[in-house]
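4.2 Preliminary Data

To establish feasibility before requesting continued support, the project team ran the inverse folding procedure on a target of 715 residues. The structure was first converted into the token representation described in Section 3, and no sequence information of any kind was made available to the design step. The complete token record follows.
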């Protein structure tokens, strides 16, 4: 095994699926070379824009025909991942598919059949590690999606690894997370110490593990509002317009559409208004639009457990003096897709934003169409985006300021920092710089997309780290109860720690592997250098390492083809001859080149269809469903046989996951219920790594294809 560990995760959203490939250094390698401050950090995940691929529609489209989802949809993502995961590490690379809003609303039996088919197909048509369908292929509730997003945001901003650089006051150093899609909206944050103690039973306990094997625990509140995404909010808004007009009215005035635009009730443009069906006629009066959408927040709904925000949903009081939020998905696209913010990297400011939206919506539709045609807002902005942005902006302003309560007076600074330059804040967010606004819309931090999939994979990577003590509690999340034991609803990170000793003999090979990967999309000069390295590797290295180089360099030269397809043009220099020959079936897998994945630099002006890593898209099937799905709707969990993702781990097991304290007091815990985080540091020095040789991958539990593993049974 090389120095890198790999992971693949498919975000199965309501309007499409997106595959993400991540890699991180083997923990043994990191410990061997790490500096002191690096030992107390979380694993460093790396990805690349080429590692990502997306396609429409969402997997829920195959709810009535699950047997076709593999060949028609899933295979392309398996092929794409194989282009980047080294062939000799595929069997040690976990693959996950996490379904969100689209699959959540399928009937339970359709959910079960669909996810079972996806798992069986992936097990049959790939060698990725997929030992447990219930653990790796599942529907996640909105609360879990929000928690993963919170992990990703704080990891990228530095709230975890550099708390001293992100002090917001009162000992608080983490950031809140806001996500809005087409069907739902999520919030996740760590309340201040007073609120954390007052609402301890409402919090989730998150446990992670740093490079040195020590645990860090955080108390996080997370909830979701199903039905409060932009598309379903629009559906409810149109219903209110219908109620305010006579039943036989043909034209209904809509202040949330640009002036002069006429559409059907479903949002399709009407070119000839001579039909009998009712239509919406835009007036472009944004202030009226904000007022008309405010009642959709349902702020007057009964609040059974104060305090509450939207729709009577309980949320601990938010102290905006220490709780600073980042907003992704629609929070980013609706504020930065149009207007000058996208072009000048301007931070979100309520006064500036409202002025820009007012001016835009007041313009005549014919003028807006002409500006779109001339790429005024970028080549990816379509007429459909321009048609929807006025309503989306009004809804975002209402949710953000009247719903959640973010201060709106120009978003004044709560902490005055000397030399602070707000206009450059978007480009300087990262581990070495805190942002001081109560709210900031973001898409990428330090070049990496803020996606909940990153949070999930980070948790998995932390699970690969061996604990520093035998009785360490597992990594994961669950209910916040006292006692230091693993609660029944604890969700482990989903991995077995399998440390691989560092080997100094690997250094040259791994450098060559990295160069081969870069050469895949680099210059002829670098290709020539890699070729020389490959030749030296043949002369001086062992045969198995020659094979690994062959995989990396060969990818650069081979043409795109599907696994199992015949080779063209004979063996050539890199053929399966004596030089780079293969002696086992394990090396028969062939990596694809294929066309490079599209550039998903969402930090630039992007089409909102790129926003389906959550559940947001103007074409979201779920987001356009009629009626209101209440936030209190219970999500059906997918019932799979075997070890469940929601099963508790035995006390003392060293896995990784999110956990809860159960009040039994059986085991001591470093967690203080009134605090936000406690690092449980070992008094012992790091022991030297045992064993100098490689551990056999043949005995790896992640490589076993157990004959006892069976598909999920129908109920």
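Position-by-position output of the design step:
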């Amino acid at each position: 095994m090389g120095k890198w560990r790999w992971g693949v995760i498919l975000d199965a959203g309501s309007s499409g699926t997106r595959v993400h490939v991540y890699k991180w250094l083997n923990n043994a390698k990191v410990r061997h070379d790490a500096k002191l401050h690096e030992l107390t950090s979380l694993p460093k995940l790396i990805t690349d824009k080429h590692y990502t691929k997306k396609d429409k529609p969402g997997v829920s489209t195959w709810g009535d025909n699950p047997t076709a989802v593999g060949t028609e949809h899933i295979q392309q993502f398996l092929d794409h991942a194989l282009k980047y995961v080294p062939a000799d590490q595929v069997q040690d690379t976990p693959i996950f598919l996490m379904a969100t809003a689209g699959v959540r609303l399928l009937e339970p039996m359709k959910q079960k059949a669909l996810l079972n088919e996806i798992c069986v197909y992936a097990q049959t048509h790939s060698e990725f590690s997929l030992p447990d369908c219930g653990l790796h292929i599942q529907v996640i509730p909105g609360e879990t999606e929000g928690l993963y997003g919170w992990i990703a945001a704080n990891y990228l901003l530095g709230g975890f690894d550099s708390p001293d650089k992100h002090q917001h006051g009162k000992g608080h150093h983490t950031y809140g997370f806001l996500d809005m899609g087409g069907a739902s909206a999520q919030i996740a944050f760590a309340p201040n110490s007073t609120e954390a103690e007052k609402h301890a039973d409402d919090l989730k306990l998150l446990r992670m593990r740093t490079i040195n094997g020590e645990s860090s625990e955080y108390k996080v509140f997370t909830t979701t509002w199903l039905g409060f995404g932009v598309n379903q909010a629009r559906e409810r808004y149109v219903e209110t317009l219908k109620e305010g007009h006579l039943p036989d009215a043909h034209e209904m005035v809509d202040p949330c559409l640009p002036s002069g635009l006429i559409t059907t009730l479903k949002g399709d443009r009407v070119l000839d208004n001579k039909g009998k069906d009712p239509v919406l006629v835009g007036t472009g009066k944004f202030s009226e639009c904000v007022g008309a959408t405010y009642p959709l927040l349902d702020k007057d709904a009964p609040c059974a457990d104060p305090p509450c925000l939207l729709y009577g949903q309980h949320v601990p009081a938010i102290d905006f003096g220490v709780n600073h939020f980042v907003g992704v998905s629609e929070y980013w696209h609706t504020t930065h897709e149009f207007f000058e913010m996208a072009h000048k990297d301007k931070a979100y400011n309520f006064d500036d934003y409202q002025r820009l939206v007012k001016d835009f919506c007041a313009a005549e539709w014919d003028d807006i169409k002409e500006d779109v045609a001339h790429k005024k807002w970028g080549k990816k902005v379509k007429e459909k985006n321009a048609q929807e942005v006025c309503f989306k902006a009004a809804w975002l302003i209402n949710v953000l300021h009247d719903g959640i309560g973010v201060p709106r007076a120009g978003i004044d600074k709560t902490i005055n920092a000397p030399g602070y330059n707000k206009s450059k804040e978007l480009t300087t967010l990262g581990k070495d710089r805190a942002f001081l606004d109560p709210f900031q819309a973001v898409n990428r931090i330090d070049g990496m997309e803020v996606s909940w999939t990153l949070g999930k994979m980070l948790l998995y990577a932390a699970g690969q780290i061996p604990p520093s003590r035998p009785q360490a509690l597992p990594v994961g999340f669950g209910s916040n109860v006292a006692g230091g034991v693993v609660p029944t609803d604890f969700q482990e990170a989903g991995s077995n720690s399998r440390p691989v000793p560092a080997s100094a003999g690997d250094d040259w090979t791994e450098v060559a592997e990295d160069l081969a990967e870069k050469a895949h999309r680099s210059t002829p000069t670098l290709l020539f250098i890699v070729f020389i390295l490959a030749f030296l590797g043949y002369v001086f290295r062992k045969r198995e390492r020659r094979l690994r180089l062959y995989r990396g360099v060969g990818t650069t030269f081979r043409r795109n083809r599907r696994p199992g397809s015949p080779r063209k043009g004979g063996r050539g220099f890199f053929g399966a001859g004596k030089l780079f020959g293969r002696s086992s079936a394990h090396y028969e897998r062939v990596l694809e080149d294929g066309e490079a994945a599209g550039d998903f630099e969402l930090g630039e002006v992007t089409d909102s269809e790129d926003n389906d890593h959550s559940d947001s898209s103007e074409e979201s099937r779920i987001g356009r469903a009629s009626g209101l799905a209440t936030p209190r709707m219970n999500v059906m969990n997918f019932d799979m046989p075997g070890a469940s993702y929601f099963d508790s781990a035995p006390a003392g097991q060293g896995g990784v996951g999110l956990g809860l304290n159960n009040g039994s007091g059986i085991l001591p815990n470093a967690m203080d219920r009134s605090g936000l985080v406690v690092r449980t540091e070992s008094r012992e020095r790091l022991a030297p790594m045992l064993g100098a040789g490689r551990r056999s991958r043949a005995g790896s539990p992640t490589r076993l294809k157990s004959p006892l593993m069976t598909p999920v049974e129908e109920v």
